[in-house]
């Protein structure tokens, strides 16, 4: 990869994929396995942060590591099939490739499960880096030379800014457009369907941000 190759990073949950149906099913299965009630409908309204952060709402700290491992085991059976691609997801990746660029996924999700989602949905990312949240995403963005990072959460905005990348936010997750702007997003789009036109303008030097 040369220093001039366009590299765009994308978040996964609620940016490229609508994982709410799958995650809801996984939490319901976790409740059945552990006997501990989890409000799955509530949990899927606050996707973005690491799994362990959500589990702390339902389990004592000493059970978090074991429960997280169990959830990730359950996840592969219950969460991959119901998960959908977000509108414009494949087209957004294709837009980067059309400009000769690389599209990478940087997510807080367990990396093997992130790869399963992308393979199942036919979303053709050039690299997938998991287990990174908020500012820690900057590690992978810098390593891969990403100059743009697209995400739906204020944590994604912080990751982009820490990396010195342009923060392009999509208002398709738990954070609305006002929250994303207040967090410092350089660009806020309604969704990924708007991304190819924005990228064309960005590459041409005409885009806002």
Describe the structure.
The chain has 209 residues and is α/β, with parallel strands linked by helices. 44% of the residues lie in helices and 13% in strands. The protein has ten helices and eight strands. It has helices at 20-34, 40-43, 51-55, 64-78, 89-98, 111-121, 137-143, 154-163, 177-182, 195-204; strands spanning 7-10, 17-18, 84-85, 102-106, 127-129, 148-151, 166-170, 187-189. It has a six-stranded parallel β-sheet, with helices on both faces. A two-stranded antiparallel ribbon has the order 2-3. β7, α9 (177-182) and β8 (187-189) form a beta-alpha-beta unit. α1 (20-34) crosses α4 (64-78). It is globular and about 55 Å long. The two termini are 24 Å apart. The mean pLDDT is 96.
Question: Helices, strands, pairings?
Answer:
Layout (H helix, E strand, L loop, with lengths): L6 E4 L6 E2 L1 H15 L5 H4 L7 H5 L8 H15 L5 E2 L3 H10 L3 E5 L4 H11 L5 E3 L7 H7 L4 E4 L2 H10 L2 E5 L6 H6 L4 E3 L5 H10 L5
Parallel strand pairs: 1-4, 1-6, 4-5, 6-7, 7-8
Antiparallel strand pairs: 2-3
Describe what is shown at a glance:
Helix content is 44%, strand content 13%.
Regions with little confidence, pLDDT below 50 for 5+ residues: none
Helix and strand content put the structural class at alpha/beta
Total helices: the number is 10
Strand order, main sheet: write it out.
5-4-1-6-7-8
Q: In this structure, how is the largest beta sheet organized?
A: 6 strands, parallel
- Tally of strands: 8
- Coarse morphology: globular
Give the CA-CA distance, first to last residue: 24 Å
In round numbers, the mean pLDDT is: 96
- Tell me the radius of gyration: 17 Å
């Amino acid at each position: 990869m040369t220093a001039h190759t366009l590299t765009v990073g994308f978040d996964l949950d609620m940016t490229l994929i609508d994982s709410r149906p799958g995650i809801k099913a996984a939490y319901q299965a976790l409740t059945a396995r552990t006997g501990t009630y989890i409000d799955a409908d509530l949990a899927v309204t606050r996707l973005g942060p690491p799994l362990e952060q959500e589990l702390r709402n339902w389990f004592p700290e000493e059970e978090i590591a074991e429960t997280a491992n169990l959830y990730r085991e359950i996840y592969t059976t219950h969460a991959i099939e119901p998960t959908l691609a977000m509108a414009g997801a494949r087209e957004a990746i294709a837009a980067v490739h059309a400009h000769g660029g690389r599209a990478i996924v940087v997510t807080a999700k367990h990396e093997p499960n992130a790869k399963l989602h992308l393979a199942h949905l036919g979303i053709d990312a050039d690299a997938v880096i998991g287990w990174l949240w908020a500012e820690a995403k900057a590690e992978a963005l810098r390593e891969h030379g990403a100059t743009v990072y697209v995400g739906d959460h204020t944590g994604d905005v912080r990751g982009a800014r820490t990396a010195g990348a342009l923060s392009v936010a999509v208002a398709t997750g738990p954070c609305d457009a006002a929250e994303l702007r207040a967090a410092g997003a350089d660009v806020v789009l309604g969704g990924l369907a708007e991304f190819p036109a924005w990228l064309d303008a960005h590459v041409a030097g005409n885009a806002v941000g």
